[in-house]
Amino acid sequence: MAAGAAARERVGSIDLVRGAVMVLMALDHVRDFVSNAHFDPTDLDKTTPALFFTRWITHFCAPVFVALSGVGAHLQGARGAGRGEVSRFLLTRGIWLVVLELTVVRFGWSFNVRYDQAVAQVIWALGWSMVALAGLVHLPRRAVGWASLGAIALHGLADRIHAKDLGGLAPLWRIAHEQGPVFLPGDRVFFVAYPLVPWVFVMAAAWAFGDWLLPDDGARRRRRLLAVGGAALVVFVALRASGRFGDPHPWTPGGGALRSALAFLACEKYPPSLCYLGMTLGPAAIALALLERPPAAIAPLARALVVFGRVPLFYYLLHLVVIHAAAIALAWARYRTIPEGMFGPPFGWKVPEGYGYGLGGVYALWAAVVALLWPACAWFSRVKRRSASPWLRYL
Question: How far apart, in whole angstroms, are the C-alpha atoms of residue 14 and residue 272?
């Protein structure tokens, strides 16, 4: 009973943090579709501080969402579900997410019904991580946790292995650990943007140590979260400063204090390095502790974010369609033409020089999209609360 009560108590704070990262994710995708900066915002030779941080702040989205999915699996068990029930749900939901990535999500990104290309992104990684966790939940929990932490810490050693050197095993290595294209028959391309390692282990570690969020004493829970978050940040700073381990692109100062600071934060995301995960999951743990009881000054904002956090998949599917449609409408309104490639993913679009909007336009459209999505998400959140249908758990 105590564990179940604690699990229910944690839902609000978890939904708050998850809702916050979902809103930040929309900023990144708006920038993808309408920004006039057609280069990697973390390219220090081209970017500006404002553009860099517009991209950098969204680095928190995928790690936090994957980790909280692992915590959610633990909470499901804490509420009384047996391991078999938790395993079945993870397996079926994971497969469902992979199917959605290759169909509905793909269409949201591309508005293209020709199946000549597909991109495996965060929903793909989330789905396969759930499938893996469906098996891992049957093993001793602490053993899974420590083994997962070890894999997170050491997976960077595999950066020395490259798909081009593996012959027929290259596609499997792309899926596992190296971002890049997998070429399929009929001139089709499957681009693996999110290799599965270490995402699988991030989710598994969060599941294994999810009971740390459920002690009877709320003060003890907060101390644990602060300690874990602080330790992760110390590891990140120490490894990044040393330049010896933790990221495939060692940090070296130079070019002035600002450029050195940006370089320090420019950690590898594909796949996420140990430094990247420490940099993002550390502050997330601290936020969970500090926002368990949101200050009165931000209470209205917190309540709004919780709505998004309760319906993350619904929000994700809807926001892609809204942002892509808005990008096409804005292109037509401004140029009276739709640039070649806008009925395809925004990665590598062929657009006129200078096409798009500056950061002011990006942030304005982001605010409009979030405001537009809130009523729909609030409605669906009410539907989920009132309905006893188990199918709604899959959306």
Answer: 22
Report the predicted TM-score, pTM, of the whole model to 2 decimal places: 0.93
239, 226 in Cβ contact below 8 A? no
pLDDT block averages, 10 residues each, the chain of length 395: 43 85 96 90 96 97 97 87 93 97 92 84 97 98 97 96 95 96 90 97 96 73 92 97 94 94 97 98 94 82 94 96 93 78 62 82 97 97 88 82
Which residue shows structure tokens 């939901």? 93
